[in-house]
Specification:
Helices cover about 35% and strands about 25% of the residues. It has helices at about 15-25, 40-50, and strands at about 5-10, 30-35, 55. The chain has a three-stranded parallel β-sheet with strand order 1-2-3, with helices on one face.
Length: about 60
């Protein structure tokens, strides 16, 4: 529980390495903001992680988002 009480934002967490990273942070006790340009992917991962996560859809390469 190295990250108990911490909040992390993982970009690109709707799949692949970002998804694995988000899941690992949650296992280590962090609350995770799951970010991805693919809103459905972000929602899916956050839902699968559960109460320790929330989806934050958006493209971090676009300032307006």
């Amino acid at each position: 529980m190295r990250f108990n009480g911490k909040v992390v934002l993982v970009t690109g967490a709707g799949g692949g390495i970002g998804e694995a990273t988000a899941r690992r942070f949650a296992l280590e006790g962090a609350r995770v903001a799951v970010n991805d340009a693919n809103a459905a992917g972000a929602e899916r991962v956050a839902k699968e992680i559960g109460g320790a996560a929330m989806a934050v859809p958006g493209d971090v390469t676009k300032r307006a988002e």
